[in-house]
Design a protein that fits this description.
The protein is α+β, with helices and mostly antiparallel strands. The chain has four helices and six strands; from the N terminus they run αβααβββββα. About 25% of the residues lie in helices and about 35% in strands. A hairpin with a 4-residue loop joins strand 3 and strand 4. It starts with 12 loop residues before the first helix and ends in a 6-residue tail after the last helix. This is Bactericidal permeability-increasing protein.
C-alpha cells in the first residue's frame, strides 16, 4: 500500500481570536498611507484635489495639498472558523490628514470602515495556499471640529456613499488581489 504524506491543519475560533486580540492589544494593527505608497493606477490619489468630489470644502480650504491616511483597528477583529473557510469581521478607521508645506498634519475627517472577509485554504500540489474575498462592508464618516472652515465650526462630513463605493471597488481591485498574492503566491515553475 502506497502512503501519501498528509498535513492536518486545525484552527479554532479561540486560536484565531487570541491572535487577533494579541495583535490588537499590541497596537500592531496600524498603518500610515501616503501618496507615495499607493500604486500609480490607484483610482484615487491622496491629494485634496482628488478628494474634492467627496469633501468639496477640503479642496477649497487646502487646494491641491498632499494627504495621509492613518489606518487602524477600532476594535479587535472577530473570527469564526467553519469546515472550509475562516470568516472575519474587521472594524477599522481611516483618519485623513492634510499635509501642509511645513509638514504639519491637519485632521480632515475620520472614516470608520467595517468589513466582512472570508478566507478559504486550498492546496496546490504540496503547497498550502488560500484565497481571500470581501463579503460586505459599510462605512460612515465624521468630520473633526479641529479642522475649521472659515465661517463654520468644521468641515462638512464627506459624502460617505461615494467614498464607500470607491473603497469597496479599491478593495476588490487592489486589496483582495494583494492579499491573495501574499498568502498564495504563484507556484514556482
Amino acid at each position: 500500500v502506497a502512503h501519501e504524506p498528509m498535513l492536518l491543519l486545525a484552527i479554532t475560533d479561540f486560536v484565531a481570536n487570541s491572535a487577533a486580540f494579541t495583535y490588537f492589544t499590541a497596537g500592531a494593527l496600524h498603518r500610515n498611507i501616503s501618496s507615495d505608497i499607493l500604486p500609480r493606477r490607484f483610482p484615487l490619489q491622496l491629494r485634496t484635489k482628488s478628494m474634492g468630489a467627496f469633501a468639496p470644502q477640503l479642496q477649497k480650504l487646502y487646494p491641491d495639498h498632499p494627504m495621509e491616511l492613518h489606518l487602524s483597528a477600532r476594535k479587535q477583529p472577530l473570527f469564526s472558523c467553519h469546515p472550509a473557510t475562516l470568516h472575519g469581521a474587521l472594524f477599522s478607521s481611516a483618519e485623513a490628514f492634510v499635509v501642509l508645506p511645513d509638514a504639519t498634519r491637519v485632521p480632515a475627517f475620520l472614516l470608520n470602515i467595517d468589513a466582512n472577509v472570508t478566507g478559504k485554504p486550498t492546496t496546490s500540489g504540496n503547497r498550502l495556499r488560500g484565497t481571500v474575498s470581501l463579503k460586505g462592508g459599510a462605512a460612515y464618516a465624521m468630520a473633526p471640529s479641529v479642522c475649521p472652515m472659515p465661517g463654520s465650526g468644521g468641515l462638512s462630513v464627506p459624502q460617505v456613499k461615494k467614498l464607500e463605493n470607491l473603497l469597496k471597488f479599491s478593495l476588490w481591485l487592489f486589496g483582495v488581489p494583494w492579499a491573495n498574492s501574499e498568502c498564495c503566491p504563484h507556484p514556482d515553475p
